[in-house]
């Protein structure tokens, strides 16, 4: 697959926080074909980050929330059997990953030919810059290329930033699964959303 590069330019006003006249960042999405130790190390860092855990995986209770596990190259290779994974690079630094699977068992609506998507912006340098938006746009293009017409996702009800992003991108709520994940001493629901592409 040919690498995809996106150049983003921000105005001076948009970059007031960066104290810069102009800033250009290079955003690259690369399909993961063969896992490496470097990639596994980055994924393990993100998947075990206490700030990210509540956002990226469901936890039934406090014990699960506090649990830490590490992937191996073999684990990631097995994951590639049913996940299409794209690594996100910002100015050549690995900052996150996006992925989709086709027709997984956990779909809310069992519509054949549905892509279930996931996104993790693991490095803080990649947040608040519109990268999540661009990453999902890229993933939607890949899904369309595969001939799939429907996308479904789940977002925990306390993750207002992600929920708002998905709404802006045209995703519509189709249901909720109550008491789905544990965070801040209580159980929260999972909002299921869909979009036809």
TrEMBL record:
From what superkingdom does this record's organism come?
A: Bacteria
Please name the GO terms that the record assigns under molecular function: acyltransferase activity, transferring groups other than amino-acyl groups
The record, for InterPro entries, names: Acyl_CoA_acyltransferase, GNAT_dom
Cross-referenced Pfam families: Acetyltransf_1 (PF00583)
Q: Which residues form the N-acetyltransferase domain?
A: 43-197
Name of the protein described by the UniProt record = N-acetyltransferase domain-containing protein
